[in-house]
Design goal:
Lysozyme-like
Length: about 150
Protein backbone atom coordinates (compact mmCIF):
# COMPACT_ATOMS: atom_id res chain seq x y z
CA UNK A 1 0.00 0.00 0.00
CA UNK A 2 1.29 3.46 -0.83
CA UNK A 3 1.76 6.09 1.88
CA UNK A 4 -1.25 8.42 2.05
CA UNK A 5 -0.86 11.80 3.73
CA UNK A 6 -3.39 13.93 1.86
CA UNK A 7 -7.10 13.78 1.01
CA UNK A 8 -8.11 16.22 -1.72
CA UNK A 9 -11.74 17.24 -2.24
CA UNK A 10 -12.90 18.15 -5.76
CA UNK A 11 -16.15 19.02 -7.51
CA UNK A 12 -17.05 17.73 -10.96
CA UNK A 13 -17.80 21.29 -12.18
CA UNK A 14 -21.27 20.13 -13.17
CA UNK A 15 -24.21 22.53 -13.16
CA UNK A 16 -26.75 21.98 -10.37
CA UNK A 17 -29.51 21.31 -12.92
CA UNK A 18 -27.50 18.60 -14.72
CA UNK A 19 -26.25 15.17 -13.75
CA UNK A 20 -22.95 13.43 -14.35
CA UNK A 21 -22.86 9.69 -13.85
CA UNK A 22 -19.70 7.81 -12.89
CA UNK A 23 -19.59 6.49 -16.49
CA UNK A 24 -19.85 10.07 -17.84
CA UNK A 25 -17.00 11.09 -15.54
CA UNK A 26 -14.84 8.22 -16.77
CA UNK A 27 -15.48 9.18 -20.41
CA UNK A 28 -14.49 12.80 -19.68
CA UNK A 29 -11.27 11.70 -18.00
CA UNK A 30 -10.37 9.25 -20.78
CA UNK A 31 -10.89 12.04 -23.32
CA UNK A 32 -8.31 14.05 -21.33
CA UNK A 33 -5.85 11.19 -21.72
CA UNK A 34 -6.24 9.60 -18.28
CA UNK A 35 -6.34 5.84 -17.81
CA UNK A 36 -9.85 5.92 -16.33
CA UNK A 37 -11.34 8.23 -13.73
CA UNK A 38 -8.62 10.16 -11.92
CA UNK A 39 -10.46 10.41 -8.59
CA UNK A 40 -10.65 7.52 -6.15
CA UNK A 41 -14.22 8.28 -5.01
CA UNK A 42 -17.18 10.00 -6.62
CA UNK A 43 -20.21 11.14 -4.61
CA UNK A 44 -23.50 11.56 -6.46
CA UNK A 45 -26.20 14.08 -5.49
CA UNK A 46 -28.16 11.34 -3.70
CA UNK A 47 -25.13 10.65 -1.48
CA UNK A 48 -24.14 7.40 -3.18
CA UNK A 49 -20.37 6.90 -2.97
CA UNK A 50 -18.71 5.19 -5.94
CA UNK A 51 -15.18 3.78 -5.82
CA UNK A 52 -13.88 4.97 -9.19
CA UNK A 53 -10.19 4.09 -8.80
CA UNK A 54 -8.63 1.66 -6.33
CA UNK A 55 -6.96 3.52 -3.46
CA UNK A 56 -3.82 1.46 -4.07
CA UNK A 57 -3.48 3.12 -7.50
CA UNK A 58 -2.01 6.60 -7.74
CA UNK A 59 -4.70 9.07 -8.76
CA UNK A 60 -4.79 11.60 -11.56
CA UNK A 61 -6.55 14.49 -9.88
CA UNK A 62 -4.05 17.16 -8.78
CA UNK A 63 -0.74 17.66 -10.54
CA UNK A 64 2.24 17.34 -8.23
CA UNK A 65 0.25 15.78 -5.36
CA UNK A 66 -1.08 12.49 -6.74
CA UNK A 67 1.54 10.14 -5.31
CA UNK A 68 0.50 10.41 -1.65
CA UNK A 69 -3.10 11.50 -1.95
CA UNK A 70 -6.64 10.24 -2.31
CA UNK A 71 -9.00 12.21 -4.55
CA UNK A 72 -12.68 12.57 -3.70
CA UNK A 73 -15.01 14.30 -6.14
CA UNK A 74 -18.63 15.28 -5.60
CA UNK A 75 -21.13 15.77 -8.41
CA UNK A 76 -21.81 19.48 -8.85
CA UNK A 77 -19.96 22.66 -8.04
CA UNK A 78 -21.69 25.04 -10.45
CA UNK A 79 -25.01 26.82 -10.04
CA UNK A 80 -27.71 26.64 -12.75
CA UNK A 81 -25.99 29.49 -14.62
CA UNK A 82 -22.61 27.74 -14.61
CA UNK A 83 -20.98 29.82 -11.87
CA UNK A 84 -18.94 28.23 -9.04
CA UNK A 85 -21.19 27.49 -6.03
CA UNK A 86 -21.50 25.06 -3.16
CA UNK A 87 -24.21 22.86 -4.67
CA UNK A 88 -23.74 19.89 -2.34
CA UNK A 89 -26.92 18.23 -1.20
CA UNK A 90 -27.41 17.24 2.45
CA UNK A 91 -26.89 13.63 1.34
CA UNK A 92 -23.57 14.50 -0.32
CA UNK A 93 -22.41 16.42 2.75
CA UNK A 94 -23.21 13.47 5.02
CA UNK A 95 -21.51 10.95 2.70
CA UNK A 96 -18.46 13.19 2.30
CA UNK A 97 -18.08 13.65 6.07
CA UNK A 98 -18.38 9.90 6.66
CA UNK A 99 -15.95 8.99 3.87
CA UNK A 100 -13.34 11.50 5.04
CA UNK A 101 -13.71 10.21 8.62
CA UNK A 102 -13.24 6.60 7.47
CA UNK A 103 -10.19 7.51 5.40
CA UNK A 104 -8.63 9.45 8.28
CA UNK A 105 -9.08 6.41 10.51
CA UNK A 106 -7.41 4.20 7.89
CA UNK A 107 -4.65 6.76 7.18
CA UNK A 108 -4.03 8.63 10.46
CA UNK A 109 -2.51 12.09 10.19
CA UNK A 110 -3.90 12.80 6.73
CA UNK A 111 -4.40 16.44 5.87
CA UNK A 112 -7.69 17.28 4.14
CA UNK A 113 -7.85 20.13 1.64
CA UNK A 114 -9.66 21.35 -1.44
CA UNK A 115 -8.16 21.22 -4.92
CA UNK A 116 -7.91 25.02 -4.97
CA UNK A 117 -5.87 24.95 -1.74
CA UNK A 118 -3.04 23.32 -3.70
CA UNK A 119 -2.74 26.25 -6.11
CA UNK A 120 0.67 27.98 -6.22
CA UNK A 121 1.37 30.58 -3.50
CA UNK A 122 2.27 33.25 -6.03
CA UNK A 123 2.99 36.03 -3.52
CA UNK A 124 4.85 33.57 -1.24
CA UNK A 125 3.11 34.71 1.95
CA UNK A 126 2.41 31.13 3.08
CA UNK A 127 -1.31 31.29 2.33
CA UNK A 128 -3.25 30.38 -0.81
CA UNK A 129 -5.66 33.29 -1.28
CA UNK A 130 -8.68 33.42 -3.63
CA UNK A 131 -6.84 35.57 -6.18
CA UNK A 132 -4.20 32.80 -6.42
CA UNK A 133 -6.63 29.94 -7.06
CA UNK A 134 -6.18 28.17 -10.38
CA UNK A 135 -9.76 26.87 -9.99
CA UNK A 136 -12.60 27.50 -7.53
CA UNK A 137 -12.88 23.72 -7.03
CA UNK A 138 -14.38 22.40 -4.77
CA UNK A 139 -16.48 25.60 -4.35
CA UNK A 140 -16.60 25.48 -0.53
CA UNK A 141 -14.06 26.07 2.24
CA UNK A 142 -12.74 22.59 3.03
CA UNK A 143 -10.57 23.65 5.97
CA UNK A 144 -13.65 24.98 7.80
CA UNK A 145 -15.47 21.65 7.50
CA UNK A 146 -12.56 19.24 7.86
CA UNK A 147 -10.09 20.91 10.15
CA UNK A 148 -7.55 18.47 11.51
CA UNK A 149 -4.51 18.83 13.73
CA UNK A 150 -2.41 17.68 10.76
CA UNK A 151 -3.48 20.74 8.75
Amino acid sequence: MRKIDLIVIHCSATRADRSLTPDDLEILHRRRGFNGTGYHYYIRKDGTVHLTRPVERIGAHVKGFNTGSIGICYEGGLDCRGRPADTRTPEQCASLRLLVHQLQEKFPGCRVCGHRDLSPDRNENGEIEPEEWIKACPCFEVKEEFWTSAA
